[in-house]
Amino acid sequence: MSLIEQGQHGDMLPSQNELRRQFNVSTVTVRKALEKLEEQGVIYRHQGKGCFIRRPQNHGVTTRLFLIISSKFSLDNEFISSLVYATQVTGYHTIFYHFDGNAETMFYELNRFAPQVVIWLAPSIFMHEKALLKLLTMPQHVILFNREYNHSSISYISGDFIGDGRRMAKVMLEKDIRNVLYLTLDERMMFARKRGMGLREEIIAGGGKFDSLDGYTLRNRIFAEGESVDPLDTRTVLKQALKERLSSDSSIQAIVCSQGKIWPTLKEALVECGKSPEDFVLASFNKLDAAEQIPGHTIAFDQPISRMASDIIALAGRLLNGGEPEQLIYPSELICQ
User: How far is residue 114's CA from residue 83's CA, in Å, rounded to a whole number?
Assistant: First the structure.
């Protein structure tokens, strides 16, 4: 998509072999990507010649959206694919920028493309606040996705993290679950911290017991004690702590994952400590793929990602038409219990 956004209507894309070499992927992957882009109306084909950029000619001045995403995300991400569809409907052109933590390079690209709106997908604010403040000195409108930020010049569309934690707790209390263990990889992340706050608040208010294990905190504790551990291996540290807790505490009724990335770690811990998933209620704040499912009692919430993507483009339109910054909050939906 970034390559397409730099071109004009009718420009020919590189051949499949050239794309395969450029992105270091298989021919099958390239073919599927081109098929998806053709279905979305972004490109068209001439038999025997190649693929060409399709760009409607009646949109007048191009509105550019600069979408900052983590280098870990791909264009298959649910929000990004939904955003692509929403921008096509409006005629906006989206520039996808994979942010690797180098703010200097990011601002160079922002100056080069000169977009009207910057959308930052789930930034780790505790790590990138200086970059956010610098964005405020630039002429672009700034919208954060799935992060809240208390500044009058920044718009955001975010999940209701504290509210989701409370709703999760209420579902558990209705099932007479009073002893909950909450798992996080890094409690500095806003969604992890606030979901835990809401969960703890309701469980304690309902007369229950709440405890948590955080991979980042546990890893730092090991460092402080002088033991060697891979600084990036928070999952292994979290898994070991979870195994020890499950082996020593038989009163735990439910295990809640702050994010979907923890689910495989939970599955491994249960197997390695000889516990059956049937002995607990397992809960996630994310929709689970078929491969992630664990037999037993599961509670799962999910954010309305497609609607949030559509609304973020509508918000961009209001800002471009002179509207004031907005802060929109979306509760997750209970999809499995």
Answer: 20
